[in-house]
Design brief:
- The complex is a heterodimer of chains A (350) and B (319).
- Chain A is mainly α and 350 residues long.
- Chain A is built from 14 helices and 2 strands, in the order H-H-H-H-H-H-E-H-H-H-H-H-E-H-H-H.
- Chain A has one domain: ABC transporter involved in vitamin B12 uptake, BtuC (Orthogonal Bundle).
- In chain A, 47% of the residues are buried.
- The N terminus of chain A is likely disordered.
- Chain B has 319 residues and is mainly α.
- Helices cover 76% and strands 1% of the residues of chain B.
- A two-stranded antiparallel ribbon of chain B has the order 1-2.
- In chain B, helix 4 crosses helix 11 and helix 5 runs antiparallel to helix 11.
- Classes of the chains: A mainly alpha (350), B mainly alpha (319).
- Chains A and B meet through helix 6, helix 12 and helix 14 of A and helix 5, helix 6, helix 10 and helix 14 of B.
Chain lengths: 350, 319
Amino acid sequence: MDNVQADALPKRPQSYLTGLKEGGRAGWLLAQGLMFLGAVWGQLLSLAIVCLIFGIGSGGRFLSPDNIHAIVGLAGVPALLCLGVHQIVVMGGMDLSLEGVVAICGVVCGLLLKNNVNSMDVGFWILPIVVALGGAVGLLSGIIHTKLKMPSFIATLGVQWVFFGFAILISGGRSIPIQDARFQRLVTGSHILGIPNLALVGVFFWLVFEIFQSRTKTGIAMYAIGGDETLARQAGINVNRVKVIVFAICGVMYGIAALFLVTRLNSAAARVGNLLLFPAMTAAAVGGVSLTGGLGRARNAVLGTVIISALNNGMVMMRVNPYLQEAVNGIVLITAVALTIDRKKLGFIK
Amino acid sequence: MPGKLARKSEFVPLVLSLALAAALSAASGVFWTSANLNSLQASIAPTAIMAFGMMLCLICGYFDLSIGSIMLLAGLLSGKFNDWGLSTPAIVLFVLLAGLAVGCLNGFLVAVLGINALIATIGVQYIGYGFAMTLWDRNMQHRKFPGDFIAMGDGQFLGMYYMTWVMLAILVGLGFFLKYTLSGRRLYYVGGNREASRLIGFNDRRIVFLCYAATGLLAALAGVLAVARIQSPTQYMGGGVHMTCMIACVIGGGSFAGGKGSALGAALGVTFMSLLTNMFNLLEMNTQLQNVVVGLTLIAVIVVDGYLNLKKMRAMGMI
């Protein structure tokens, strides 16, 4: 009896290791590559179109190595933010606390690194500090969202105001000049193969998140929650725990991004986080992360950031009216969202 | 009787406003001067007109973050139309039409395409701001509006600005609409339980669409009145006004969860927020601290609203 049942059970899905044995390393890599391209061909096409339009419009200057270097370098910090925020979107939520978390982490970086306001100088210990602080704030958002059963956008809106206020209070509303030049050299430099260090950091975290999303229980559960929260709960996933963990991870990403932001400028102020949320959300939507949840991976977030970065760089290069650039970004956001939402999930809107 | 009054959702903003007004008249000698009262009116009336629109959306369970941009667009468009030499009625008509068009865009995105209200209206906020600011040029603020346009903002009737009367008229009309007409009551059903309202045969998409359209129209009206009052369009109009309106509406009995709220509540909530700003100015508080106070108000509002929703959901057995 037991044997019959065991036979009737579906076979375990083939792991990547079996695929490796059967098709050989080259076949496996090819299959992975095709899967990757298949998932993001629309985004790659948009990137190609953006490059083509601005490449022709600027007479080739847009595609010069210097400009590509600049685009990739500037995409680093938004990529970190988008890698954080897209995970909340995948779970079907919304995180508006980004600017507040970046503000508080940025100001704390300014106060703890060597500066001319106080006598602190923690050097590279700032990294664990800022990771812990960002993670703690993210944890707080997650707990408010899950325990008080508030919609995530309202909970995080509150958190955003609290920490933005704190950031203003502890910085006294001033900018704090950072006098530790090592960080700025690291953040603005390009030490390996001429690739900007920030882009390398972005790629590193991209890979980390790809592994998190495809190989860890929490990462996979995140997609289950985004697909259908009730079903995920009934399938035995501890939804609240997953949510709190993911919020904390996003907080960590905001913290790291804040460190890079303030050290790149060598100056920390509460307003360093202003106007970062909208581009991050746009990048996620353009990359193909669906706002109804359950769709979109780290590669989508990264590609979306590169597309937005290229678009904005191109518009500056073509001398488009700066206010019109904002309008274009708004149109891009709405179009991307309208294209990626899953209308089956909206229920009452048919 | 006092118990019944205290249970009304308008009671909280009324008491808060009266308390703040009493505190201000005690703390500052200039509170009751006509100059201060006039500036209070000029700040309450346009904001309240916009808050009425926001309240309509909140009752349906949505919100509109683009009203600040619509106000700015209305202001700069009236400047532009004035440059083209249009007469006052034409300026007002075209600006209101433009506001209605942006409101319809919001309604289309949210009700028809089903995009999340937050994203759709933030997107429209950026689009509106961007297009409005392309109209802006530095010389715009030095050109004169026609006399009757200025009179619209500057004229007084029985000691109050025309715009205050307009606000009161809308308040009465909207209050009646929401309380005593079938169409008005439908908004509460849609906000209370959208699925159920659709099942009993309401055209919920049309209702939400119309609410957004009305919000756009009201925001444009507020923009025209504000420009007429300050006599020249500025690029700073409408900044942060969506937050003020949202806080005011939730203080005035609205809820992010929908299905609650009234026109009177919105007006009283705006009165409270304007008195708060007035307090900052009269007591000369620093701007950083002002942000913190507004933020704290928002958080208090959000927490109380969330707690009440939680209680309601528990009572209904939803969690």
